[in-house]
Specification:
By secondary structure, the chain is of the alpha+beta class. It contains eight helices and 15 strands. The protein has one domain: Double-stranded beta-helix (4-Layer Sandwich), CATH 3.60.130.
């Protein structure tokens, strides 16, 4: 297995390994070491189906139930509960219409975010497999939260140390005008805000990183307007071009990223006319980043 660094240096292009086959312990360790070093790894020509993708994913920890699957009715699901359906297709394989509720909620994926930061124990890795890609658009951009933290001035580092934010899926969808009530009464409890540290330390490398996401609604102890303005400033800093890698998808790419040290967003494409079918498995994190209390 070989990893070639990609601009601006925190994503790696990997060759020399077939992830659909059973891996040795040393191969799994090499991938984990690559993730610690790069935070985003890109593998081409990986011919996964859902079962082989889930089997590969289990090498890195416990699988998470997808929030979309969890909040949808069983008869509406297209994929298994452990597989997030990152597509513009309905259960019957037809393109979703312009006013489709699932499509409108999924537009929140175009905001900079970290997967499952709205869970008390947030996600570790996300693994996204491209089954069908559009002719143009639909790229995924990644931002390096370690480099963004390193580039902060000392006064800001001192200011943010120890700050705790509150995250909810409802906050990010609110930004695009998707009403909280559209999730239905039975899902309102799943939208309850959780608390996360604004600065995280990687358990292996010891590097600090910003933990930002569109799911942030406030900073504990701050007035909401001041908190949101400050988070916007940090997000603008962290997503400057010098910290961002844009991945142009090919069919059968698999990309793994570390949600503890990166943010990402999907880019626009003709979702009413072209299919973009991506299947994501997600590895549950190891621990909470902050004590959980009643939301402020």
């Amino acid at each position: 297995m070989n990893i070639a660094p990609l601009t601006p240096g925190f994503a790696g292009d990997v060759t020399g390994i077939d992830l659909t086959k059973k891996l040795s312990a040393s191969q799994v360790a090499a991938i984990e070491a690559g993730m610690d070093a790069y935070a985003v790894l890109i593998f081409h020509d990986q011919h996964f189906d859902d079962d082989t993708q889930l089997a590969f994913s289990r090498n890195f920890g416990e699988l998470e139930i997808s929030s979309g699957g969890e909040m949808s009715k069983p008869e509406d699901r297209r994929l298994k509960l452990e597989m997030a359906d990152i597509s513009n297709l309905d259960r019957d394989g037809a393109l979703r219409g312009a006013d489709d509720r699932v499509r409108l909620s999924a537009l929140g994926n175009r905001l900079w975010h970290s997967d499952a930061s709205f869970r008390a124990v947030p996600a570790k890795y996300s693994l996204l497999s491209a089954r069908i890609v559009p002719k143009s658009g639909g790229n995924t951009e990644f931002a390096d939260m370690r480099a963004a933290y390193d580039a902060l001035d000392d006064a800001t580092k001192l200011q943010i140390e120890g700050l705790v934010t509150e995250h909810s899926n409802a906050y990010s969808r609110e930004l695009i005008g998707f009403p909280k009530e559209n999730y239905g009464d039975r899902n309102q409890d799943k939208l309850r805000p959780v608390r996360q540290s604004l600065v995280r330390t990687h358990p292996v490398t010891g590097r600090k990183s910003l933990y930002l996401s569109a799911h942030i609604g406030t900073i504990v102890g701050w007035p909401v307007p001041e908190a949101r303005a400050f988070i916007r400033d940090l997000t603008e800093h962290a997503t400057q071009p010098c910290f961002v890698h844009a991945h142009v998808w090919r069919p059968r790419d698999l990309v793994i990223w570390d949600n503890r040290t990166t943010m990402h967003r999907a880019r626009r494409y003709n979702d009413l006319g072209e299919i973009r079918d991506m299947h994501r498995s997600t590895i549950r994190g190891d621990a909470m980043t902050a004590p959980q209390q009643e939301a402020a």
